[in-house]
Amino acid sequence: MTPITEVEGRRLSLSNLDKVLYAATGTTKGELLHYYARTAAPLLAHLAHRPVSFLRYPDGPEGQRFFTKNPPPGTPAWVRIAEVPRATAQVGRQVVIGDLPSLMWAANLVVEFHTPQWPVEEPRRADRLVFDLDPGAPATAVECCAVALWLRERLAADGLTAYAKTSGSKGLHLLVALEPTDSDEVSAYAKRLAVEAEGARPELALHRMNRSLRPGKVFVDHSQNNAAKTTAAPYTVRARREPTVSTPLTWEEVERCTDAEQLVFRLDDLAGRLERYGDVLAPLLDGGRAGQLPPGF
Predict the structure, then answer these.
(1) What whole-number distance in Å separates Cα of residue 259 and Cα of residue 179?
(2) Is the CB of residue 222 less than 8 Å from the CB of residue 193?
(3) Rounded to an integer, what distance in angstroms lies between the CA atom of residue 143 and that of residue 255?
(4) Contacts of 148 (CB under 8 A, 6+ apart)
(5) Pairing assessment for the beta strands 20-22 and 80-85 based on DSSP bridges
(6) Is the full-model pTM beyond 0.90?
(7) Phi, psi for residue 260 in degrees, rounded to 5
(8) Angle at 258 between CA 253 and CA 261, to 5 degrees
(9) Is the dihedral of CA 23, 233, 191, 249 positive or negative?
(10) Alpha helices, H only, the chain
């Protein structure tokens, strides 16, 4: 029998709570849902007003995985659905997770949460800039940290403040709060800095995706600033071998990283980190701290 629970006045069917999703750690679906309930406040703050795409993995990361932007079949009527532009100039529909019942409904589907860099109120007007730092073996998160520190200083030279988080996979994400700016402009600026990073640290950084160039270097992926692209949201659990989380980092953690394992955080780690640090990415939510791209960059 599927358990029925009530969350802020909404009735939810939570299924297969004893199902093991992560065989490596024995983590169950019930434990995953408990994590999302405990981490709801900061996660909802970063999902608010953004159309959500889902990477679904209902049988765990080793089972079938599929990415969807459309509202899943059976989406409750009380879950917010927004119209959003598509690359083809057509209009699509996507879920917007704005409250705890909607979050728990989505988490019950077993998903990663991905969002674009713009809110539904201003499609294609980015209020965040993102770099996805992706290491090519034998490079690891340690090398990503070195590139992140270079980018932090380069962004600061343009009056922009960067914040870091793990991707929840192998690399790091850098995020910058912006005054709403056309996504094409943000993309062009991000590409310019990625090229500069490769020029300044050619032994370490790479702005091109070519697989043959990747070993031992960090790909500075600027492409997720494209209005059609998305990035794993802060605090989302990833469909990896273990239940790793895209976790906000302090710059001190980035600066002192000497081993990639230092930056691997699983869902059981987040409660303690939130108690110790709060939401490290909270400044991204403060419009008063948003920066502007340099004129004529």
Answers:
(1) 35
(2) yes
(3) 11
(4) 133, 162, 164, 172, 174, 254
(5) unpaired
(6) yes
(7) -55, -30
(8) 80
(9) negative
(10) 29-38, 40-47, 100-108, 141-157, 183-200, 251-255, 270-277
- Greatest CA separation for the chain: 62
Measured over the CA atoms of residue 101, residue 103, residue 21 and residue 25, the dihedral's sign is negative
Q: Would you say residue 5 has pLDDT above 60? A: yes
What type of residue is 160? Answer: L
pLDDT band at 252 (very low <50, low <70, confident <90, very high): very high
CB–CB of 49/287 below 8 Å?
A: no
Tell me the pLDDT tens digit for each residue of 173-215.
Answer: 999 999 999 999 999 999 999 999 999 999 999 998 777 778 9
d(C-alpha 9, C-alpha 79), whole Å: 13
Show the tokens assigned to 189: 């600026």
Strand blocks (E) in the chain? 4-7, 10-13, 20-22, 27-28, 51-56, 66-68, 80-85, 91-96, 111-115, 125-135, 162-166, 172-182, 205-206, 218-221, 231-232, 248-249
136, amino acid identity: G
Report the C-alpha gap between 64 and 41 in whole angstroms. Answer: 29
